Amino acid sequence: MPRFLSTLLLTVLLALATSATAQDLVGSYFAFIGRDDLYNSKGQRLTEPWQILRQDRANYHRFGIWQVGDEGDNFFGSIDNRAIMERMVMNGKIDSFAGQRIVAGGVKVHVQIYGYGNRGDFVQVTVSD
Fold first, then answer.
1. Which tens digit of pLDDT belongs to each residue from 34-93?
2. Alpha-carbon distance 61 to 118, whole Å?
3. Whole-angstrom distance, CA of residue 72 vs CA of residue 66
4. Which residue from 84, 41, 31 is spatially nearest to 62, judged by alpha carbons?
5. What is the distance between the alpha carbons of residues 95 and 125, in angstroms, rounded to a whole number?
6. How many CA within 13 A on the CB side of residue 7?
7. What's the rounded Cα separation, in Å, for the pair 52 and 60?
8. 76 alpha-carbon distance from chain centroid
9. Between these two residues, 98 and 21, which has the higher pLDDT value?
10. What HEC string does the chain produce?
């Protein structure tokens, strides 16, 4: 029984150590959230920050629509990665005031993408004028 408990304890400690490791910065970009980013491709007004951030990346990568201040990124060039933007924002950091400013538009954002390798797990979003 003691051997089983020590093996179990070692397994738990290894799992905790693995999950506690810091994730890597896999990409980042600056973008200006303009009027085009506030509406989806059907012309409907977007009301959530993650929707607008996703539309900004779709505009940039898919539709060739960009504003002065927009930068490219390797991560959100993939439609699959853009599809997980909501989860990445929810798992990441964006304060409510920054979210309100994104929804209003006319702000510059800095998005940092964290994960492992080519997998993104969360984003950290900051807003400036």
1. 999 999 999 999 999 999 999 999 999 999 999 999 999 999 999 999 999 999 999 999
2. 17
3. 10
4. 41
5. 8
6. 4
7. 12
8. 9
9. 98
10. CHHHHHHHHHHHHHHHHHHHCCCEEEEEEEEEECHHHHECCCCCECCCHHHHHHHHHHHHHHHCCCCCCCCCCCHHHCHHHHHCHHHHHHHCECCHHHHHHHHHCCEEEEEEEEEECCEEEEEEEEEEC
Cβ atoms within 10 Å, residue 89: 23
Q: Where are the domains of the chain?
A: 22-128
- CA-to-CA distance for 46 and 51, rounded, in angstroms? 6
**Residue found by looking up tokens 């964006």 in the block:** 94
Using pLDDT thresholds of 50, 70 and 90, give the confidence band for residue 2. Answer: low
Going by C-beta distance under 8 Å and a sequence separation of 6 or more, which residues neighbour residue 74? 27
Q: Using CA atoms, how far apart are residues 57 and 77, in angstroms rounded to an integer? A: 7
Q: What is the pTM of this model?
A: 0.81
